[in-house]
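Hi support team,

I've been running sequence recovery on a batch of backbones for a student project. Most finish fine, but this one hangs at about 90% for roughly twenty minutes before it completes. I'm not sure whether the input is malformed or the queue is just slow. I've pasted the structure tokens below so you can try to reproduce it. Let me know if you need the job ID as well.

Thanks,
M.K.
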């Protein structure tokens, strides 16, 4: 990682790097908010079915590969990974409070670790065999679409939404949205990742609208 430039302006435009960097920062803030919410409410807003995907991707892109956008971006991935370690441990403790089948609750710990292992291998091979970009955007957005859809599904299945944070929802939407802008700048011909990014933006905004209707406020 330390062989990377601090910020790679040779291969990436300044505008794209700014949008990407601010988006990454919003994601780190989102994780920090989530950690604080977990400590306060003993409930994890990260959907249990996709928690292993997040930390699995971050492990691969923090310690096996690194984004070639520069050291500052690589450090944001690593920071998100360590925050996600706490989130994953909390999923093991409180994940069964989320809506899920009783049969899965009995074997939830085994499912969570199997899910984590799958996504570590998925993220590694996806990059190793040439399907990903040099910053992990293709695999990251596949996971992000699943995450956004699972968040919305969990919200719609939950009657009492007091455990859901509007601040977290905004940080997640802004983080992904700003990174999506950078995808259009970095990869103008990668319509696959652009489609996934726009899909995330739409679903995340639907989530915010539904949560606003439940909470009666925007923040």
């Amino acid at each position: 990682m330390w062989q990377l430039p601090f910020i790679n302006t040779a291969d990436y435009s300044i505008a794209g790097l700014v949008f990407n960097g601010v988006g990454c920062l919003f994601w780190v803030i989102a994780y920090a908010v989530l950690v604080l919410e977990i400590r306060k409410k003993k409930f994890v807003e990260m959907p249990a079915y996709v928690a292993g995907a997040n930390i699995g991707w971050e492990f691969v892109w923090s310690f096996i590969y690194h984004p070639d956008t520069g050291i500052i971006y690589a450090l944001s991935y690593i920071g998100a990974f360590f925050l996600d370690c706490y989130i994953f441990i909390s999923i093991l403790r409180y994940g069964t409070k989320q809506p899920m089948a009783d049969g899965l609750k009995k074997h939830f710990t085994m499912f969570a670790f199997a899910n984590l292992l799958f996504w570590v291998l998925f993220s590694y091979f996806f990059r190793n065999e040439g399907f990903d970009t040099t910053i992990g955007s293709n695999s990251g957005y596949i996971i992000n679409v699943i995450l956004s859809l699972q968040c919305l599904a969990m919200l719609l299945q939950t009657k009492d939404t007091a455990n859901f944070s509007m601040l977290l929802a905004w940080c997640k939407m802004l983080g992904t949205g700003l990174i999506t802008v950078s995808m259009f700048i970095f990869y103008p011909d990668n319509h696959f990742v652009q489609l996934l990014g726009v899909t995330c933006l739409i679903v995340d905004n639907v989530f915010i609208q539904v949560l606003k209707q439940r909470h009666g406020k925007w923040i």
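--
Follow-up from support: It reproduced on our side and the slowdown came from queue contention, not your input. Helices lie at 14-41, 51-64, 71-94, 102-106, 108-128, 137-157, 166-186, 191-215. No action needed from you.
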